[in-house]
């Protein structure tokens, strides 16, 4: 008999995981506590922008013409408890307001709400990013609350998907990591992933704390790589070097690698910034805070890039206040191929210039609604060309493909001044310069 899967939480992690499990042939029940999300998903609509996710969902959501019908959604914990052999916890773990620590309330409430409905054998699998030690604590909660007693077990299976690549990363993961305490749990998880998903993916079996730490240390390493290259960008600027060439050259060394070495306004989003902060907070609780003091520097290098971008813009405009200057901002999301504006470096830079008197007009291919909600006082335009019209400077702050395909000559006709500042080191500098633009970027020589 094929396993039945429930997925608790239908954000970009849960919705993608649920659809991927249905794609692998399992019967899947997704649960969310937000009724609007459930209604949308039942219609095959995705409550967020994630390339390919809509198509994957519609292939499986029950009631949609031509679908396999293997994927359903509910708000009912009892239904979920009775349905699943394996229950994946995919709720978010944001940063606590005003603190570094991670807010575990959604995970705690998911396990607490599900457990009383687990009457028979069940495996509850945490996928959310949590402070090390959480799985052990949640296992005890489960044992205390589940009528099934020891037959209801916990496992940890961190998720490494990137926004914008969620479908690809879920269907073809680099590795599958499981933290388990029994052979039964390992066997069940091997069965779940004994599908094309696991083909060619290393399957790492370990204990709870290691599984939890794999996720936080992987994200810390990625954050470190980005802040490292941004620190090099600062030195390059001081020494008149070129950080893009430097990154290319050091990246040819396999031990370093070329990925995640793009200098610019730094990392944002719902994961890297809060994960490194939560990691520091947890290490402090464990008495190991000294081991992670370097992450404080990684965080501060990252945050500094936003202010440096503002200063680069000011200098390029001749110094002095922004008052009366029209600034076009291309990009609002924290990265391309996402509509996520959480902790977006682009909006932070736009907001700083606006607060200093600049007249800012933002355009983003997918993030406009979310940006407007978060920063209602900024100006917004319906296209890049419209944003650039009459601008004294154009800031490229999120590297959407659409921006790389812009015609600098056409934009040059619309702008008041041909000055472009590339906060992502992603535009073709020569192309823009040939069209008469002054091109500036962080960590790059001025001409
Ligand atoms: C990250 C991890 O990559 C993923 O494995 C984990 O599961 C969740 O956190 P995500 O937040 O989707 O994924 O974004 P990612 O692609 O890692 O980019 C994070 C930020 O770093 C973005 O703001 C991006 O613009 C920035 N970045 C990335 C750089 O500034 N330079 C780079 O070279 C790469």
From TrEMBL:
The keyword Oxidoreductase applies. Pfam families: UDPG_MGDP_dh, UDPG_MGDP_dh_C, UDPG_MGDP_dh_N. Belongs to the UDP-glucose/GDP-mannose dehydrogenase family. It comes from the Bacteria. SMART domains: UDPG_MGDP_dh_C. PANTHER family: UDP-GLUCOSE 6-DEHYDROGENASE TUAD. NCBIfam families: NDP-sugDHase (TIGR03026). SUPFAM superfamilies: 6-phosphogluconate dehydrogenase C-terminal domain-like (SSF48179), NAD(P)-binding Rossmann-fold domains (SSF51735), UDP-glucose/GDP-mannose dehydrogenase C-terminal domain (SSF52413). Pathway: Nucleotide-sugar biosynthesis; UDP-alpha-D-glucuronate biosynthesis; UDP-alpha-D-glucuronate from UDP-alpha-D-glucose: step 1/1. GO terms for molecular function: oxidoreductase activity. It comes from Streptomyces andamanensis. InterPro entries: 6-PGluconate_DH-like_C_sf, NAD(P)-bd_dom_sf, UDP-Glc/GDP-Man, UDP-Glc/GDP-Man_DH_C, UDP-Glc/GDP-Man_DH_C_sf, UDP-Glc/GDP-Man_DH_dimer, UDP-Glc/GDP-Man_DH_N, UDPglc_DH_bac. Residues 328-429 form the UDP-glucose/GDP-mannose dehydrogenase C-terminal domain. It catalyses: UDP-alpha-D-glucose + 2 NAD(+) + H2O = UDP-alpha-D-glucuronate + 2 NADH + 3 H(+). Transmembrane segments: none annotated. This is UDP-glucose 6-dehydrogenase. Its EC number is 1.1.1.22. Keywords: NAD, Oxidoreductase.
